[in-house]
C-alpha cells in the first residue's frame, strides 16, 4: 500500500466536537510532534506530549539547527576567503581560512551552536507550556486501542500522533565511536578542527558538511557512490556544485563506495569496495537515516510499516489504524522539518474535525545549504525530459546580474519549468547565495498556479539577485512566443 492509496476518512471518522475536551497524545517532540501539539491545544484539545529526546527533536538538537549554525559560520569564512577579488587585502586565503589570516576555534563554534540549539529547545518548551500542553519525559509506547504507556503512566487518547523521527544509518563495518568515526549527530562534540575529514555519502547531509568543513579549513575528501554529488537533484545544479567543490579543493571520489572504516593511530582508514584505502583524521558517515519505529508496539497495534520501516500514511497523515496519525521522518514522505510540521498540523486539524488541505509534496520547496546553495520546488527538468510533465525549461545565468557581479558571485543560475500553453510556472531551481530565500517567489507561483508573465510583472529591487527571478520569467514568456 502506498501513501496515496490509503482512503481519506469521512467526516464521521473524526473526533466528535463536544463539551468534553478530546484527548490527544503526541509521541515525539520534533517539528511534527510539537506543531501537532500546539495545533491541537489551540483547537481546544487536552494534549500530552511524550518525548525521550528533548523538545525540538533531532531537528533542533542534533540536526537542522546545529548543522545550519555551523554552516552559517562557514559562510562567513567562505565570504572572507574570496574577498581578495573585491580588493580586500590580507583576506584571500586560497579557499582555506585556516591557512591564512583567519583561524577557527571549533570548540567555541560547537559550544555556540549547542547553546543555540538548547535555547531553541527551551523556546519550544515555553510555547507548549503557554498553550497548556502537558509534557512527559520518557519513551512512549502503544499498548492498546487509544492507549499509550509513557513515563510510568497509562494515557487514554481519542487520537494519537506518532512523530518518532529517524536516526543516522550505520554501516556494519564502520561503527561510530564518537571520536574519529562519526555520525552527523556527533560532530558537535569535536574540540579541534579535523585536519582531513573524509565524508562518506554525497547526499544532502554529506554535501553540506563537506562544503562547511572545507570553508572552516579542513582538508575534505567526499566519497560518492554516484557520478555526481547530490544524486537525484537537478543535474545542472549538481554540476555547478561539483565544479565549486573542485575549485575550493574538495576531493570528490566519484563512483566509489565505502565498505569499512577503522581507527589507526591518530587517524582513520576508510576502505573502498574495490580495495583502495583512504586515510584521514576523521570520517563522517552520512549514508542516510532509518526511521525510529522499532520497539514501540506499532505492528502489534496494527500500524502498517513499509519494508523500509517507515509508517504508511495518507495525505492527511492518517495511518492504517483509525485514530492514529504519523508525521515527520518516520513516515518517509520528505525528510524536511517543514514537511513534518505541516503533517503534524494537518493530522490534528483532520482529527479534530477542522477543514484540511492534503499535503502536496510537489509544492514543497527544499534547499541544500552548500556554497553555493541549491533550492528547488515543483516539477523538475527530469520530469519534462521523461515525459511526466508537459513543460519548457528556461535557464538564466547569474553571471549577468549586477548584484552578483558586485558581490563577486561567479556561479549560479535560475531555472524555470513553464507549461508551454498557459505559461504556468510548474517548478524552478535556484543556485546562488541564499537560494533558500530566493526560492520563495517561485514556490508561491507553483502553489497558486501563477504564470511566468505574472511572476515577471512583479516589481523587484535593483540591484538584487531576486531580479534574476523576474528576468528568467520574462525570458521564459518571450521565448515561448517566438
Would you kindly provide a written description of the structure presented here, covering whatever features stand out?
- InterPro entries: FAD/NAD-bd_sf (IPR036188), FAD/NAD-binding_dom (IPR023753), FAD/NAD-linked_Rdtase_dimer_sf (IPR016156), Pyr_nuc-diS_OxRdtase (IPR001100), Pyr_nucl-diS_OxRdtase_dimer (IPR004099).
- Its cofactor is FAD.
- Belongs to the class-I pyridine nucleotide-disulfide oxidoreductase family.
- Residues 364-472 form the Pyridine nucleotide-disulphide oxidoreductase dimerisation domain.
- This protein has 482 residues and is α/β, with parallel strands linked by helices.
- 30% of the residues lie in helices and 22% in strands.
- The strands form 6 sheets. A 5-stranded parallel sheet has the order 3-2-1-7-18, covered by helices on one side. A 5-stranded parallel sheet has the order 9-16-10-11-12. A 5-stranded antiparallel sheet has the order 19-20-23-22-21, with helices on both faces.
- A hairpin with a 2-residue loop joins strand 4 and strand 5.
- Helix 1 runs parallel beside helix 7, helix 3 packs across helix 4 and helix 3 crosses helix 5.
Amino acid at each position: 500500500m502506498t501513501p496515496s492509496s490509503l482512503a481519506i476518512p469521512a467526516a464521521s471518522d473524526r473526533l466528535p466536537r463536544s463539551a468534553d475536551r478530546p484527548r490527544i497524545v503526541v509521541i515525539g517532540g520534533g517539528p511534527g510532534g510539537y506543531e501537532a501539539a500546539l495545533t491541537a491545544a489551540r483547537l481546544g484539545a487536552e494534549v500530552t506530549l511524550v518525548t525521550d529526546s528533548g523538545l525540538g527533536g533531532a531537528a533542533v538538537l542534533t540536526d537542522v539547527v546545529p548543522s545550519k549554525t555551523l554552516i552559517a559560520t562557514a559562510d562567513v569564512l567562505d565570504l572572507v576567503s574570496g574577498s581578495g577579488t573585491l580588493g580586500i587585502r590580507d583576506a584571500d586565503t586560497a579557499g582555506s581560512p585556516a591557512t591564512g589570516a583567519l583561524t577557527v576555534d571549533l570548540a567555541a563554534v560547537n559550544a555556540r551552536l549547542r547553546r543555540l540549539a538548547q535555547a531553541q529547545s527551551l523556546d519550544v518548551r515555553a510555547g507548549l507550556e503557554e498553550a497548556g500542553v502537558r509534557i512527559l519525559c520518557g519513551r512512549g509506547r502503544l499498548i492498546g486501542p487509544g492507549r499509550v504507556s509513557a513515563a510510568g503512566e497509562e494515557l487514554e487518547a481519542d487520537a494519537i500522533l506518532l512523530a518518532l523521527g529517524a536516526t543516522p544509518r550505520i554501516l556494519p563495518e564502520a561503527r561510530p565511536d564518537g571520536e574519529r568515526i562519526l555520525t552527523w549527530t556527533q560532530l558537535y562534540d569535536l574540540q579541534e578542527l579535523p585536519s582531513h575529514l573524509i565524508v562518506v555519502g554525497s547526499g544532502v547531509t554529506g554535501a553540506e558538511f563537506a562544503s562547511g568543513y572545507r570553508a572552516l579549513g579542513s582538508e575534505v575528501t567526499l566519497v560518492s557512490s554516484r557520478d555526481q554529488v547530490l544524486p537525484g537533484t537537478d543535474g545542472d545544479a549538481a554540476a555547478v556544485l561539483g565544479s565549486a567543490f573542485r575549485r575550493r579543493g574538495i576531493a570528490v571520489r566519484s563512483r566509489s563506495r565505502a565498505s569499512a572504516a577503522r581507527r589507526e593511530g591518530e587517524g582513520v582508514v576508510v576502505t573502498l569496495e574495490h580495495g583502495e584505502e583512504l586515510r584521514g583524521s576523521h570520517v563522517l558517515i552520512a549514508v542516510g537515516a532509518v526511521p525510529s519505529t522499532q520497539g514501540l508496539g506499532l505492528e502489534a497495534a496494527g500500524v502498517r510499516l513499509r519494508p523500509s520501516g517507515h509508517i504508511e500514511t495518507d495525505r492527511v497523515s492518517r495511518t492504517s489504524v483509525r485514530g492514529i496519525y504519523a508525521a515527520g521522518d518516520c513516515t518517509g514522505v520528505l525528510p524536511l522539518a517543514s514537511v513534518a510540521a505541516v503533517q503534524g498540523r494537518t493530522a490534528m486539524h483532520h482529527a479534530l474535525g477542522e477543514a484540511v488541505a492534503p499535503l502536496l509534496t510537489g509544492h514543497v520547496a527544499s534547499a541544500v545549504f552548500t556554497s553555493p546553495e541549491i533550492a528547488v520546488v515543483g516539477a523538475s527538468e527530469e520530469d519534462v525530459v521523461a515525459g511526466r510533465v508537459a513543460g519548457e525549461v528556461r535557464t538564466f545565468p547569474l553571471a549577468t546580474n549586477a548584484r552578483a557581479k558586485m558581490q563577486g558571485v561567479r556561479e549560479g543560475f535560475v531555472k524555470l519549468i513553464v507549461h508551454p500553453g498557459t505559461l504556468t510556472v510548474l517548478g524552478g531551481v535556484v543556485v546562488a547565495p541564499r537560494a533558500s530565500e530566493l526560492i520563495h517567489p517561485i514556490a508561491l507561483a507553483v502553489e497558486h498556479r501563477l504564470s511566468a508573465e505574472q511572476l515577471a510583472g512583479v516589481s523587484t529591487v535593483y540591484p538584487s539577485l531576486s531580479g534574476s527571478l523576474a528576468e528568467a520569467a520574462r525570458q521564459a514568456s518571450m521565448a515561448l512566443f517566438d
